[in-house]
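testing teh design pipeline on a random one, pls ignore if ur not involved
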């Protein structure tokens, strides 16, 4: 089930309200079968829901009708059919097959999208705008009640200002749009095959991974391109184990060959991940996990082993790679409030704990989600505090940086940063919801020379690790202090099932190095149709 599906917001609220049990939001996406299991719990406890969530549940029962009830009474097929109603509240498909005797089902749908982006820069009084058009398809299904497949992709084009178009996150790392200097783009959002054997689940392919609690993902987020991986999940009672090994992109160079034209050289990189979760109770669970990044050599069989400790085998491999360790917790000791946190260790020297030694690289992410007003007001409140020490995610060898195609695998945060972020969610109806987010970011940037090269490396750039001649003592937020203040408002409306509109406003005020001040406002108007 794609990570951007709003069902995950609903399920996390149900978890916080203790309406569902054994749900953990640390790793998203989950399979449709898993989502269906939690929705079944909500149906059993639906008397605990407020009016709006009851209506949202009715919408979800349409979307997951086959998995929950084994029927397709609320789905319609074929645009040429006399009974096809473009304005119905049913789930819409171009084509589907549901054959219980052959144990196969398949669904095909099309997607149309339009986005208008505008930007205004107060310092230069410049206005820019861009329009994005996209057309795509989605193809998913299961067979033999054990195996699943999913593909979602699209292509499209843009008009207007290219810099405004790049405010769309997915275009920022689109090869065709950027490297080939085209006004068109194509992308694959999901493409994978799964096998579900209840206690053991396997997955091969690519999709968006959101790993980590809260608004800012400390493990895998939306900042970098998606990547291909092989994944394994195992769950037995209070224990669950996850593993994946994926292919990512390192540094790339371009050469214009007189004979063959443009040639691209890319360093191969790989990412390994595993996590053991311990669910002590519905109110408390812990996790411990590792990541390993290595590159510029073939696939390493040491890291293909799902049950090996990366840090130890990395030492056996002559310390050529970048290992990271993390601990996480999720607690609901107070009714209606969920506390969570992640502590990541990129590198550690026990003898220098408590000092500003550059090699002690930690990340701390703590926050809470409150649904205390659930019985009276359909409002949720979330708050997070994140500290990213200097040089976190970096590495002395650029091939081992915690990045994909030069972008952090986690979030937009650069090392040597501190962030406060809060978000308020409000549900007017089951089809109309809004949010407002406040963010205050402090960052210690590397001081620069007049020619733009680095004057002093204080660990403020993901793509520049510590060098032998760099300072050995680097306090948090040292360097050129930068500040970013941001307010973002969004509203989403889905008047007809599978047709939705969204509007976003973002105001940003930045005080950057070299006495640069920027004030800007961005607006996004997005339409999406599925049929």
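output:
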């Amino acid at each position: 089930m794609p990570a951007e599906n709003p069902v995950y917001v609903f399920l996390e609220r149900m978890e916080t309200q203790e309406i569902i049990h054994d749900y953990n939001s640390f790793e998203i996406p989950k399979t449709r079968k898993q989502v269906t299991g939690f929705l079944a719990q909500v149906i059993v406890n639906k008397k605990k829901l407020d009016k709006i969530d009851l209506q949202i549940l009715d919408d979800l029962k349409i979307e997951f009708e086959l998995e929950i009830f084994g029927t397709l009474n609320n789905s319609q097929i074929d645009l040429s059919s006399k009974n096809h109603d473009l304005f119905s509240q049913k789930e819409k498909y171009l084509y589907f097959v549901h054959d219980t005797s052959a144990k196969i089902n398949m669904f095909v749908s099309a997607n149309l999208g339009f986005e208008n982006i505008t930007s205004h820069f107060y310092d230069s009084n410049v206005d820019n705008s861009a329009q994005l058009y996209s057309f795509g398809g989605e193809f998913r299904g299961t067979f033999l009640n054990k195996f699943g497949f999913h593909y979602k992709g699209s292509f499209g084009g843009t008009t207007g200002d290219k810099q405004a178009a790049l405010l769309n996150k997915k275009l920022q790392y689109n090869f065709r749009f950027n490297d080939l200097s085209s006004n068109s783009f194509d992308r694959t959002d999901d493409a994978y095959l799964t096998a579900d054997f209840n206690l053991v689940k396997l997955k091969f392919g690519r999709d968006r991974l959101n790993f980590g609690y809260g608004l800012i993902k400390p493990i895998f987020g939306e900042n970098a391109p998606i990547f291909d991986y092989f994944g394994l999940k195992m769950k037995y009672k209070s224990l669950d184990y996850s593993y994946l090994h994926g292919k990512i992109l390192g540094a790339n160079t371009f050469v214009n060959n007189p004979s063959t034209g443009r040639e691209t050289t890319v360093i191969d990189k790989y990412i390994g991940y595993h996590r053991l979760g311990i669910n002590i109770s519905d109110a408390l669970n812990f996790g411990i996990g590792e990541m390993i990044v290595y590159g510029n050599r073939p696939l390493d069989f040491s890291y293909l082993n799902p049950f090996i400790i990366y840090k130890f085998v990395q030492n056996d491999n002559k310390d050529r790679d970048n290992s990271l360790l993390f601990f996480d917790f999720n607690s609901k000791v107070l009714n209606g409030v969920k506390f969570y946190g992640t502590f990541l260790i990129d590198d550690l020297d026990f003898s220098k704990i408590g000092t500003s030694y550059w090699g002690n690289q930690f990340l701390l992410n703590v926050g809470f989600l409150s649904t205390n007003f659930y019985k009276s007001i359909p409002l949720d409140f979330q708050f997070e505090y994140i500290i990213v020490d200097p040089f976190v995610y970096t590495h002395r060898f650029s091939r081992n940086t915690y990045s994909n195609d030069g972008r952090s695998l986690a979030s937009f945060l650069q090392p040597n940063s501190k962030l406060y972020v809060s978000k308020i969610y409000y549900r007017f109806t089951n089809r109309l919801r809004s949010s407002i987010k406040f963010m205050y970011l402090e960052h210690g940037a590397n001081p620069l020379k007049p020619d733009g090269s680095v004057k002093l490396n204080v660990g403020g750039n993901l793509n520049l690790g510590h060098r032998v001649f760099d300072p050995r003592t680097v306090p948090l937020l040292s360097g050129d202090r930068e500040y970013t203040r941001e307010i973002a408002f969004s509203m989403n409306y889905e008047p007809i099932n599978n047709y939705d509109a969204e509007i976003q406003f973002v105001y940003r005020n930045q005080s950057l190095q070299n006495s640069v001040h920027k004030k800007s406002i961005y607006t996004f108007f997005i339409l999406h149709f599925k049929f």
